[in-house]
Amino acid sequence: MARERGYQRHPRFTRRLEVTFISGGLSYKGILSNLSANGLFIRTNRGFAPGTEVEIQLMMPGDKISSIKGIVRRTVKAPVTPAKNGMGIELITRDEAYVNLVMTSLQEQGIDTKELPIPESVTDFQIIACSGCGIKNKVSLEKLSREPKCGRCGTLLITDMP
């Protein structure tokens, strides 16, 4: 079922699929809870810290595997209701199998997919912590030479680029 939230730019829907997620040599399993064209939520007790880049393998219907990458945007660890634990992931790459799953699922929900652009995969970016407020900013490499500013406070981001 598609969920409407004010802060989400892409329609979400529930899908339960087995997931393996990997970062820094650590590999864990979880259950995909919901997804959209731009992100997903993995139910797990082994959530990574926000800002961590993860490789994700989804066990798709028909025994296919979708390999995607993302960045952890939020981690939920609630000792009272561990069934709600997990990670919200913003996708930075998505393969054809994932895009097809999203489009098919949205069409099944009666959502017109003609008006929904699937975001382009962004593989070349740098995470830069703001010296003013400390927030981490994702900046594409092509914009590094244009004096990027923090999305929260507007401070000029200091880059390692000459």
Task: Give a concise summary.
It is built from one helix and eight strands. It has 162 residues and is mainly beta.
Describe the protein's architecture and organization.
- This protein has 162 residues and is mostly beta strands.
- The protein has two domains: 13-115, Thrombin, subunit H (Beta Barrel); 124-162, Zn-finger domain of Sec23/24 (SH3 type barrels), CATH 2.30.30.380.
- The protein is built from one helix and eight strands, in the order ββββββαββ.
- It has one helix spanning 96-108, and strands at 13-23, 26-35, 39-43, 53-60, 64-76, 86-93, 125-129, 136-140.
- The strands form two sheets. Strands 1-2-3-6-5-4 form a six-stranded antiparallel beta barrel. The chain has a two-stranded antiparallel sheet with strand order 7-8.
The number of E-state strands comes to 8
What is the H/E string? EEEEEEHEE
Which radius of gyration do the C-alpha atoms yield? Answer: 17 Å
**Portion in beta strands:** 35-45%
Structural class: mainly beta
What fold name goes in the CATH topology slot of the largest domain? Thrombin, subunit H
CATH class of the largest domain: Mainly Beta
User: In this structure, how is the largest beta sheet organized?
Assistant: 6 strands, antiparallel, barrel
- Give unreliable regions as ranges: 1-8
Q: How far apart are the termini?
A: 48 Å
Strands in their spatial order, largest beta sheet: 1-2-3-6-5-4
Number of contiguous helices: 1
Helix content: under 10%
Which second-level CATH architecture of the largest domain applies?
Beta Barrel
Shape: globular
